[in-house]
Amino acid sequence: MRVLLVGLDCAPPTLVFDRFADVMPNVAALRARGISGPLRSVMPPITVPAWTCMLSGRDPGELGLYGFRNRPRDHGYALSMASARDVSAKRVWDRLGESGRSCAALFVPPSHPPSPLRGSMASCFLTPPGAAWTFPPSRATDWESRFGTYRSDVASFRAGDLGRIFDELHAMTAQHFAIARHVWTEERPSFLAMVEMGPDRLHHAAWDHLDPTSPRHVVGNPWLDHARDYYAALDRELGALLDVASDAVVIVASDHGARACEGAFAINELLLREGWLATTHTPSTPTPLRDVIDWKRTRAWAEGGYYARVFFNVQGREPEGALPEARLDRAIDDVRALLLAEGPVGTNVWRPTELYGEVRGVAPELLAVFGDLAWRSVGTLGHGAVKLTELPPGVDGANHDWNGVVVMSGGPFASTTPRAIDASIFDVGRTVLGLFGVDPGPRWRGHDWSRV
Ligand SMILES: [Zn+2]
Prior knowledge:
The chain has 2 domains: about 5-260 and about 400-450, 3-Layer(aba) Sandwich (Alkaline Phosphatase, subunit A); about 265-395, no CATH class. Strands 1, 2, 5, 6, 7, 8, 9, 19, 20 and 21 form a 10-stranded mixed sheet that branches. The chain has a 4-stranded antiparallel sheet with strand order 12-13-15-14. It contains 14 helices and 21 strands. It is about 30% helix and about 20% strand. It has helices spanning about 15-20, 25-30, 45-55, 60-65, 90-100, 140-145, 160-185, 200-210, 225-245, 265-275, 290, 330-340, 350-355, 425-435; strands at about 5-10, 35-40, 70, 80, 105, 120, 135, 190-195, 250-255, 255-260, 265, 300-305, 310, 350, 365-370, 375-380, 385-390, 400, 405-410, 420, 425. It is α/β, with parallel strands linked by helices. A hairpin with a 4-residue loop joins strand 12 and strand 13 (about 310).
């Protein structure tokens, strides 16, 4: 038994199963003889926690991963970028390695810096240019001699120069799939997981151009065809990999979806207006929170992103805490009520204990999605309003969405009639372990579709 997991970061059912399905014959063929459907992501539906949830069977609270960036254990105000060092849970390749199977983990977030496994690893998009990117380290020399200098990501993918961005996208994707084909055939791992970041970069670079439902879409713009061509190229690369993996059980999955961003919720403007947050002066243009915040007079602040994280500035806990701890619980309820009252229709606000089996690391006191992800959060100040229907500079047209995709084909999924399923992101890793007959242990979330 050999299992191939091809991850397409951010690929939504609206494109893979619908609008671009006609240029993805290899995905269609897998669906026609297997099981497929939307794949429900986690809260938050963000790359670093989502792939880790998929491949560790733990939720974001259990992992202590709440986004790309997380707060330090000492409750300092700065956020630091997540890395593979922040993942202490075992992932699928660790469990399979323990059972004697060889694995390859290629470009799976977060995997910088690369770490030992029974097989080989190429680190993910978080790898800085020139950094060590493989395990064993000697693989880098071999692979770069065959496939060129490692392309971990598309540079400045929100810069707007779409010609250059598309060139980089195609080159990156071709290189990644070439490495995957090489590793699959030369190293013959029992399990190979690869994640292609290209679709995510395409969406954040060009969503307004490719989605007619975006409020900023211009009918007839040329980049829609380029986006379709990119998905066609992805499918051709998948087909070439399937050509050398005809004996494999194949899973195609994405970590979350994407949708048009209809507006930006300037959450710190609201906290400022309502007296939770204080500033040293009032900026007149969009300004980073940390340039103007007066910590000593701030009781709550929030971070922007596809969702909002609200933190409270508690005396004796934060460096310049202003809120007595005895008032924290009431304050959390008050801010939650404020966000629900002021947010667009479909706004949801949770305490982490309502979402997760455990709350590790420094979690936000509240997590909020605005308009069921139709709106995003911005943490900057100086907008002069809370609800921004014109996106501020640096904010792109794509928000992440709840549903990715999953397709499983071959082995126990083989069928002459396609079957539609509703699956959770946790099911993917659990199913891979199930395919190999490896006991996931009691805390591994998800459903094993190989046993249906
Ligand atoms: Zn992602």
